[in-house]
C-alpha cells in the first residue's frame, strides 16, 4: 500500500517539475548579451528543448534569432526580426545548434519585416563555411517562411545567412596587414557603443595623393567586405605595381564603418537603428561624423589630394554604382577608363555599371561626389558571388586602378608644371 501511495506522488512531482522546466525552457528564450538594446532588439537567445536534448543559441557576436518556440519533439520555429522597421530586406540570421544524440531537426525560419533572402551556410567551427542550400526544403509564398531540415549531433553546427565575419576576425586581418613597414593602424573615431572605427594607412611616401576605401556600413554585406579585403591585399602586396603605387599614393582604409551593427547581427543599421548609408546629409551618427571628418581632412586648400573614393557593399549582383556625371569629377574620365580596363582584362565577365542608382539619396558616394568633386563609386559584389571569383575580380580591379592612377597623377603633375612655366612673370 505504502509503495503504491508513494509512487503516484513521485510521478506527479516529477511531471510537475518537467512541466515547470518546459515552461522555463520555452520562456528562457532571451539570452545574455550585455549589449542588449533598450528598445527591445533582443537577438541573442539561448534555448533548450523540453527534454533538454537540443540547444539552439545566437548569443555570440553576429548571431541573430529573436525567439525560439518548440513545436514538436524535433521541430522548432525561429523568429527572425530586424532591429528597425521598415528596413531594406536583408534578413540576417545566425545560430548554433546541437543535440545530445544525432537527430534530424525541422527548423522553420519565420521572418518579420523581411523575407528569405540568404540560403544558409554551415560551419563546424564558425570559421570555415560551406554552402548549404540543400537544407532548405521549402520556402513559403512571398518568402515569409523557410523550412530547413538539419542533421545535428553533439558537436555545435553553425547555421548562418552568410559566413560570419566578426569584428574579431577583421581585427586579426587588420593586424596581419599592419605588420608591413609601410602600413599604420589607428582609429578615426568610435561607434555609438564605443567600439573603435579602425583605419589602415598604406603608403611608402606619405604622399598627399590619397585614395579612400571603406566597407561594412551594412553589416550583412559579407561579399563586399571580402572584396575590400582582397582589394587592400593587392595594394599592400609586395609587387612592383603595388610598390610603385604606394610611392605615389597613400591609401586610407576603414574596413568596418558599422562595428556595432556587425557585433549585434543587425540587418542594416547601427546601434541607434540608423541606416548609415542614408545619413550622409545630416550626419546624425558618430560613425558618419567620423568618416566625414576624415574625408574632409583631404580637402587641402587649392590642391587636389583625394583621387578616388570606393565604398564596398553587397547586393543581388555585382555592380558599380556611380553618379551620372562621375566622369566629370576629378580625375576626369577616370571611372570609365577604369571599368573599361576591367572589362578588357576579364573577357569572361560582364562589368555592370549603373550610373543613376540612388543619385538623390543621402549616400556616401553622392556626398563625396558632390562635396569633394571626386570620383566616387559604390563597389557592390553579388550576395552569392563565390569567394575565389571575388578575389580574382578585386585583385584585378585593384591592379587596373593602381596602373591608371599612377598614370593620371603623372599627367596631372606635368600639366601643373606646364601651367606654372607658361604663366607670365609677375610685373616688376
Ligand atoms: Zn549596402
Question: Can I get a quick summary?
Answer:
The chain has 428 residues and is of the alpha+beta class. The chain is 31% helix and 24% strand.
Can you describe what's shown?
The protein is of the alpha+beta class and 428 residues long. It folds into 2 domains: 17-160, Immunoglobulin-like (Sandwich), CATH 2.60.40; 167-417, Zn peptidases (Aminopeptidase), CATH 3.40.630.10. Helices cover 31% and strands 24% of the residues. It contains 9 helices and 19 strands. The chain has helices spanning 2-27, 167-177, 222-235, 240-248, 259-264, 286-296, 334-345, 364-372, 387-422; strands spanning 46-48, 54-57, 67-72, 75-80, 94-99, 103-111, 121-123, 130-131, 136-139, 145-152, 157-160, 183-190, 196-202, 210-215, 250-254, 306-315, 319-321, 353-354, 376-382. The strands form 3 sheets. It has an 8-stranded mixed beta sheet, sandwiched between helices. A 6-stranded antiparallel beta sheet has the order 1-2-5-11-7-8, with no helix packed on it. A hairpin with a 6-residue loop joins β7 (121-123) and β8. α3 packs across α9. It starts with a helix and ends in a 6-residue tail after the last helix. Residues 1-39 have low confidence and may be disordered. Bound molecules: zinc ion (ZN). Zinc ion binds at residues 218, 221, 277, 313.
Describe the secondary-structure layout:
Layout: H1 2-27, E1 46-48, E2 54-57, E3 67-72, E4 75-80, E5 94-99, E6 103-111, E7 121-123, E8 130-131, E9 136-139, E10 145-152, E11 157-160, H2 167-177, E12 183-190, E13 196-202, E14 210-215, H3 222-235, H4 240-248, E15 250-254, H5 259-264, H6 286-296, E16 306-315, E17 319-321, H7 334-345, E18 353-354, H8 364-372, E19 376-382, H9 387-422
Parallel strand pairs: 4-6, 14-15, 14-16, 16-19, 17-18
Antiparallel strand pairs: 1-2, 2-5, 3-4, 5-11, 6-10, 7-8, 7-11, 9-10, 12-13, 13-15, 17-19
Helix pairs in contact: 3-9, 4-9, 7-9
The structure holds zinc ion.
